[in-house]
UniProtKB/TrEMBL annotation:
Subcellular location, record wording: Membrane
GO MF assignments: sodium:sulfate symporter activity
Keyword RNA-binding included in the entry's annotation: no
Keywords: Ion transport, Membrane, Sodium, Sodium transport, Transmembrane, Transmembrane helix, Transport
Species of the source: Pelodiscus sinensis (Chinese softshell turtle)
Transmembrane segments: 42-69, 81-99, 119-138, 242-267, 287-310, 346-365, 385-402, 477-507, 519-542, 554-576
Domain of life: Eukaryota
Family designation: Belongs to the SLC13A/DASS transporter (TC 2.A.47) family. NADC subfamily.
Keyword Ribosomal protein: no
Encoding gene (name): SLC13A1
Official protein name in the record: Solute carrier family 13 member 1
Membrane topology designation: Multi-pass membrane protein
């Protein structure tokens, strides 16, 4: 047993050492460019799935191995590591940095919850909607980390207030004086300080002006789960579980809606546009039209599933009008209102961030809406030159230019005072942007692009397509279902970006081989890759066990795959003309007949 324990300690080193050695016969025996590219693909894929090396480091292997095998020159491989995707990501991260720095995310989340109501079921849905909306523009990890401290505060206040009500009722029953009921507005000194620290870590900011943003993205050692937590009854424990799981899954489901919502969507868009440059059908607007119904349906069904699984689902109680609010509902409303009041009036930086946020979304939607000419048509001599990254960069640069403080009038009515000292600080600084930029994902995506281009140059993609041709005899819905279930299963043990980066170069040749619109296979696979939530964030609060996450995740995954299957067989068909094989995709039957 001691030997096994020692081997387990060095498992990553052993994987790094033996994976290339065990696979080495493949290029040595076959000695073709396809085999050499396959060797590189297998080594990188195993390192990504096992995370024997950091994802970003493994992504650099194609830059080393392709030139050594003579597949691509070093300059050609290097050009694959920075694409239009990276410019789009930079603009989005500029927006995310400003939102997190000025606490606009908290104002949006609380306002949405206040609009939904304080019935426990509706309150949970309100948190899901607010977290889902944030994840449309921010990463799922950041969205969950931002909303969870608010959820935790509400849950603790509810349990504390109901405990006080029970104590007062017991005193009244025993003949004690029944004083006016006052809701406890504090958890306890230790719990409050702990919650405040969690809020500070998750939001990445504090009340100090020199705060740091995006700490949650950089912290690998999350706070340990809180043990010994006491609940008044089983219902309180179940309520905390539901709230945590709803945040975890809504932060993932919301990201499906926009092309910038998840890294997997961005990877798909860039790899698809690189492989099929003549196709102009994938943009921000078309993706939003496709995915907004998917997101709404999955979120509602997941809400029903989680409510039923842990608390039961009482429709009569939910829709009963004129009913007096319970203690739980009164406390929820009070806590949320107090949290919103603490934010104070909306500040100048928040207003500017919100305006730029809306402007960026409008530029994305109106670039090429499809049914009317977009703003890109203003440059007819340069068709296709302006992309979504162009709009993102325009807005992203403004965050570094617009000052974070507005000019205020002095007593004599002027904007400037001769004795005043002005300090020009933009909405975000480069240091703050750097702390938010997901550099590992940037390198991972670049490595995926290099692998995809290597597969094309070495003809490995064509070889894979020829071997997958017999699958064309299967029903189309079965092929989509198998590929969707496959990627959903792999994401349970591997990161989402690594999974989609591995499968896209395999599924695209499959679609070409069976003469099916590539979008028919690639869209469901991309969406199903994004169902794995940021479990570590919600798990760190100590309410959940592993079995809770397994039960909840199984149901959400089934719901997600079913809804995606429904989408690609109904409203996605006319949107992308999925029933016909497009001109922009290569016709392998012609290629095979000509012998090329």
């Amino acid at each position: 047993m001691k030997i096994f324990s020692q081997l387990w300690v060095y498992r990553r080193f052993l994987l790094i050492l033996f994976t290339p050695l065990l696979l080495l016969p493949l290029p040595l025996i076959i000695q073709t460019k396809e085999a050499e590219c396959a060797y590189t693909l297998f080594v990188v894929a195993i390192f990504w799935l096992t995370e024997a090396l950091p994802l970003g480091v493994s992504a650099l292997l194609p830059a080393l191995m392709f030139p050594m095998f003579g597949i691509m020159a070093s300059k050609e491989v290097a050009s694959s590591y920075f694409k239009d995707f990276h410019l789009l990501l930079i603009g989005v991260i500029c927006l995310a940095t400003s939102i997190e720095k000025w606490n606009l995310h908290k104002r949006i989340a609380l306002k949405m919850v206040m609009m939904v109501g304080v019935n426990p079921a509706w309150l949970t849905l309100g948190f899901m909607v607010s977290c889902g909306f944030l994840s449309m523009w921010l990463s799922n990890t950041s969205s969950a980390a931002m909303v969870m401290p608010i959820v935790e505060a509400v849950a603790q206040q509810i349990m504390g207030a109901e405990a006080e009500v029970d104590a007062l009722e017991m005193n009244y029953a025993s003949g004690a004086a029944n004083e006016a009921l006052e809701l406890d507005e504090s958890i306890s000194e230790s719990e409050a300080s702990e919650w405040k620290e969690k809020t500070k870590d998750a939001n990445g900011s504090s009340s100090d002006e020199g705060h740091t943003v995006c700490k949650i993205e950089k912290e690998k050692n999350l706070p340990p789960a809180e043990t010994g937590r006491r609940y008044r009854n089983q219902k309180d424990h179940m309520m905390c579980k539901v709230m945590c799981l709803c945040i975890a899954y809504s932060s993932t489901i919301g990201g499906l809606t926009t092309i910038t919502g998840t890294s997997t969507n961005l990877i798909f868009a860039e790899q698809f546009n690189t492989r099929y440059p003549d196709c102009q059908c994938i943009n921000f607007g078309s993706w939003f039209i496709l995915c907004i119904p998917i997101t709404i349906i999955i979120m509602l069904l997941s809400w029903v599933w989680l409510q039923w699984l842990f608390l039961g689902f009482n429709f009569k109680e939910m829709f009963q009008c004129g009913k007096e609010k319970s203690t739980r509902e009164q406390v929820s409303a009070q806590v949320i209102k107090e949290e919103y009041t603490k934010l104070g009036p909306i500040s100048y930086p928040e207003i500017i961030t919100l305006v730029l946020f809306i402007l960026m979304a409008l530029l994305w939607f109106t670039r090429e809406p499809g049914f009317i000419p977009g703003w890109s048509s203003l440059f007819p001599q340069y068709p296709g030159f302006a992309t979504d990254s162009t709009a993102a960069l325009i807005i992203g640069l403004l965050f570094f230019i617009i000052p974070a403080k507005s000019l205020s009038r002095t007593s004599n009515g002027t904007f400037f005072s001769p004795l005043a000292v002005f300090d020009y600080t933009p909405l975000i600084t480069w240091k703050e942007f750097q702390s938010c930029m997901p550099w590992e994902i940037t390198m991972l995506v670049g490595g995926g692009f290099a692998l995809a281009e290597g597969c094309e140059v070495s003809k490995l993609s064509a070889w894979i397509g020829s071997k997958l041709t017999p699958l064309g005899s299967l029903p189309m819905w079965l092929i989509i279902l198998i590929s969707s279930l496959m990627v959903t299963s792999v994401t349970e043990v591997a990161s989402n970006p690594a999974t989609i980066t591995i499968f896209l170069p395999i599924l695209a040749p499959l679609a070409e081989a069976i003469h099916v619109n590539p979008l028919y296979v690639l869209i469901p696979a991309t969406l199903c890759t994004s169902f794995a939530p940021p479990n570590a964030i919600v798990f760190s609060y100590g309410h959940l066990s592993v079995i809770d996450m397994v039960k909840a995740g199984l149901g959400v995954n089934i719901i997600g795959v079913a809804v995606v299957m429904l989408a690609v067989t109904t409203w996605a068909v006319p949107l992308f003309d999925l029933q016909t094989y497009p001109r922009w995709a290569p016709d392998l039957s012609i290629v095979n007949n000509t012998g090329l």
